[in-house]
Amino acid sequence: MANATENRALEAPHKLTLDARRRLSMTGVVEVESFDEAQVVLATTKGTLIVRGRGLHLQMLSLDGGQVTVDGDVDSLAYEEAAPAGGFFARLFG
Asked: What's the total number of domains in the chain?
């Protein structure tokens, strides 16, 4: 059953809506990797998203539907670059 839920989340469109830098609503979230009042790290269908700010709280979390809402003072949104595959020499000569 987990595979069906994960597959649905991976197929969901990724959309962000930020209202007045106080409420961030998202779809296409696969997993909440970590969260505290200063940073929320989310795995999305478009890569790892890092939300930074102050007083951040997860208000809605529905991973079955891939939806997450974060309230607080949002300072930045950044997607992490995927690490290159392979070792040093594969990246050097690949």
From this structure: 1
